Amino acid sequence: xxPLVSVxxxxxxxxxxxxxxxxxxxxxxxxxxxxxxxDGRPAYLESHLPGAVYVDLDADLAAHGEPEDxxxxxxxxxxxxxxxxRWGLNDGDTVVVYDDGPxxxxxxxxxxxxxxxxxxxxxxxxxxxxxxxxxxxxxGGVEVEPGTMALAWGLMPVVDLxxxxxWPGHGILMDARAPERxxxxxxxxxxxxxxxxxxxxxxxxxxxxxxxxxxAREELxxxxxxxxxxxxxxxxxxxxxxxxxxxxxxxxxxxxxxxxLYPGSWSQWSNTxxxxxxxx
Length: 280
Known about the structure:
The chain has helices at about 5-15, 15-20, 40-45, 55-60, 75-85, 105-115, 125-130, 160-165, 180-185, 215-225, 245-255, 265-270, and strands at about 5, 25-30, 55, 95-100, 120-125, 170-175, 200, 235-240, 260. It is an alpha/beta fold.
């Protein structure tokens, strides 16, 4: 199942014939979030795709515990199911998630919904691509009837801290952060600078072009091949807190490679006493 849907494809799927042909509705989720502006609701209320429901990444797509758990641990099954029903999702629905454009936050929602067995895809290019194509937008909030969706769980591969530590011994551990954070030259958030020993750096920002859309399959495959990744490679991905690593996993899927997520990521690793740190 490809992780992306284009603006043209979404326009077609939103037509009246889609629900009749597929037995479910197309639900839109607006997942605008960034480290600089974690509350995307004001932007959502100003302008969003018609019918889209706002999703709070920090509240709905993450749990919150001790620093040793990381900044964005995965929510548990019950919490995500309650959120999905609050968003109006029902069994059989197709879900399209989007954000401002590069899909860094939307990919977190995509990954979690896929983990829970939902037919979810990322709107390639996000709101910016939709508007550039002349797509309509609306303002204000959207009220929906509570849904009844029953989520599954555990359908996407996950690794924990111990597995991440040993992963370079048999596979490729991919660090999706910016190069300066990987090298340990800069660490604006977490307590220690550097990376997990044996990891390779493939920054998430390189997965998209200037228009915020994912690169073509061939370009992504070549990019990951430069990091030693082939179709049979065992790949696990981490970032700062497990959010943008999902974007890397989506890009890998476009390239034909399935990868595991280390949800705790650098925020957990750097807060855990005794873990080794590499720099350079």
